[in-house]
Amino acid sequence: MTESLHFVKTGSAPELHLLDCCDSDLDNVNINQRKRKRMEDDIHMLFEQFSSKFSAKLLDFKNELESKITDVQTDINSVIKSDLNSIKTKLTTIEVNQSQLFADMESMKSAINFQDNAQKDLVKRVDHVCETSGTQGSDIARMQTKIRKLEFELNDQQQRDRAFNLELTGVPERPKEDLTAYYCSIVKYLDVPSSASDLVHITRVRPINPVPGRPKAIVLKLNSRPLRDSILSAARAKKGFQTSDIGIPGESKKIFVNEHLTPSNKLLHKNTREKARAAQFRFVWVRDGKIFARKNETSPTIRIMDSSDLRKIV
């Protein structure tokens, strides 16, 4: 500052003017510095206020965050505890089910062992049967042949017992009918010498398979086979006759006179006629309880003894 005054005293007039200007600038600088200092103080005060408020807000936020974290931890602990209890319950259930499963597996194992033993026993039995089936098979075949032979002999005997019998079909059934009178009318129409005294027995017979509307057949037994054969021959010569021919009132129907066959022979006769019709055979007949077939007038006669003979009809 002394140097400045000294400079002023030794300077010229223009330099004095410059000095005044410098003093003015210096004052301005001092003013600006004071303003800057006040501004800095204000800024510092504002910053401190802001820092204080920010710290307070930050503390509030921290406290709130810690509170929420505590709540979340409480909720999480509650959920975890509940889940752990649920898991514990489920584990207990699984252990119970596992114990039951083990018990069932043991039971199944026992059952499998039982089945395995039973299967082994069955295999042994099958092997034994296979070993003995050869001899048993031949024994069965011989027995079946013997049974068929006995059946044929029995049927043949039953047919011989019917040697004096006739079967009349197509004769209408009427209340309080006189079957003997029917017989007398038939032999009179056929011109066969006979009377009621030649009858041993006469009756209607229910068929094995009844047909609605079809009258039951009349079966009669005569006292001689020649008389039976004479009636059969006369009926065949007439080629059938009607109910009106023997004086039975009502709608006229055909009457058939045939040998009295056993049930087995009746079925065989029926099957023979069906097979012959399909194979275009012209003739199928019964003589003395035996069944015959022939394709035409020049072809050989075929004796049908049982169902196996039907394959001959081709």
Describe the fold and architecture.
The chain is α+β, with helices and mostly antiparallel strands and 314 residues long. The chain has 3 domains: 2-70; 164-260, L1 transposable element, RRM domain (Alpha-Beta Plaits); 261-314. It has helices spanning 2-10, 13-160, 179-190, 225-238, 263-278, and strands at residues 165-169, 199-205, 217-222, 241-242, 254-259, 283-287, 290-294, 302-304. A hairpin with a 2-residue loop joins strand 6 (283-287) and strand 7 (290-294). The radius of gyration is 67 Å and the shape is rod-shaped. The N and C termini lie far apart (163 Å).
The count of strands amounts to: 8
- The CATH architecture assignment of the largest domain turns out to be 2-Layer Sandwich
How far from one another are the termini? Answer: 163 Å
Q: Unreliable stretches, pLDDT < 50, 5 or more residues?
A: 1-13
> How helical, in percent, are the residues?
55-70%
> What is the H level of CATH, i.e. the homologous superfamily of the largest domain?
L1 transposable element, RRM domain
Q: Regarding CATH, which class of the largest domain?
A: Alpha Beta
What integer is the average pLDDT?
Answer: 86
| Residues in β-strands, percent | 5-15%
Radius of gyration: 67 Å
What is the count of distinct domains? 3
Major β-sheet strand ordering: 2-3-1-5-4
How many strands, what sense, and barrel or not for the largest sheet?
5 strands, antiparallel
Give the number of helices.
5
* CATH topology-level fold name of the largest domain: Alpha-Beta Plaits
- By helix and strand content, what is the structural category? alpha+beta
Broad shape: rod-shaped
H and E string: HHEHEEHEEHEEE
